[in-house]
Design brief:
alpha/beta, eight-stranded parallel beta barrel
Length: 300
């Protein structure tokens, strides 16, 4: 199969949409569709429903399927849809097959949630999923610094539909080595730590980056992308300085407020409710005021 269109889609801003809730705590379908349209109208070319910014681990099986279906319907070919899947291998396979039946283009495989991860077992886990949906692109979400580039290369040798890697280890030097050991050109390397890490990862091999901030200000994320593509690092760092405090708030206490801050910003803009599900927690009033002040003036 020709996976080149999927590779092109990954070499971009890969948006991770939030999952808004209504007053009863259910997924707010209308608000979700509206937020997706805002991303698409803003120029986003790849979206990941059921990502961590979408509260993947707080959603039920039925809700994850709903979000997948809503995303495919709303995207309608305007953007590639990369569905987050995970949990045990059987559950991930079921989710990947559902994504295929819904019309998605790719699946992103969340880092295995297990206290004991052998490198060969990591390969087997991803191979099981990739082989179950050979028509779809597959993108491992790698947060484990112990997984070596050679392991990723082995996975790619056996599974041609593994087209990219979302790399989210807080170490640009480690990323540079892993990407080269795995195959810098074999995979599309997506900086999985969003805008604050995008310039450093781009300098050593990434050609795309994920973003939760893009929910709030698509133009800001796309401006950074344009600067990086042009090799304009001063321009990229100007955006970095603009968003630094916002992203620092998300990253505090091991990213405790990662989703909370994004939803608070959207609430301040009147785009959805601020509600998040445990173990996340809404911001206190002082935090809400700071987030509102930061995003004031950011245009869509």
């Amino acid at each position: 199969m020709d996976f080149s269109p999927l590779r092109t889609a990954l070499a971009d801003v890969v948006a991770i949409p939030v999952t808004p809730y209504d007053a009863e705590g259910a997924v707010d379908r209308a608000a979700y569709r509206a937020l997706l349209r805002r991303l698409l109208d803003g120029g986003v070319k790849a979206v990941t429903p059921n990502g961590n910014t979408g509260e993947f681990y707080a959603l039920t099986l039925e809700e994850r399927r709903l979000v997948t279906e809503l995303t495919v319907e709303e995207a309608a070919g305007r953007a590639a849809v990369l569905v987050g899947v995970g949990h045990d291998a059987a559950t991930a396979v079921q989710a990947a097959r559902h994504a295929r039946s819904a019309g998605a283009d790719m699946v992103m495989v969340h880092q295995p949630v297990h206290p004991y991860v052998a490198q060969d077992g990591w390969i087997d886990y991803h191979r099981t999923i990739a082989e179950s949906v050979p028509e779809l692109g597959v993108v491992p979400y790698l947060r484990n610094p112990l997984i070596e580039g050679a392991a990723i290369a082995r996975l790619g040798e056996g599974c041609p539909n593994v087209v990219g890697v979302k790399y989210a280890v807080h170490d640009a030097t480690r990323f540079a080595a892993v990407a080269r050991d795995a195959g810098l050109d074999r995979f599309v390397w997506v900086a999985g730590l969003a805008e604050l890490y995008a310039p450093s990862y781009w300098a050593v091999g990434a050609t795309g980056f994920t973003s939760g901030l893009v929910n709030v200000a698509p133009n800001v994320s796309l401006t950074m992308l344009g600067a990086l593509r042009a090799g304009d690092y001063p321009g990229a760092m100007k955006v970095w300085e603009q968003i630094r405090r916002f992203e620092d708030l998300r990253a505090e206490r091991q990213s405790a407020n990662n989703v909370t801050v994004v939803k608070e910003a959207l609430a301040a803009m009147g785009l959805c409710r601020r509600d998040v599900r445990p173990p996340s927690k809404p911001l206190p009033e002082t935090g809400r005021a700071e987030v509102a002040a930061i995003v004031e003036g950011w245009s869509a």
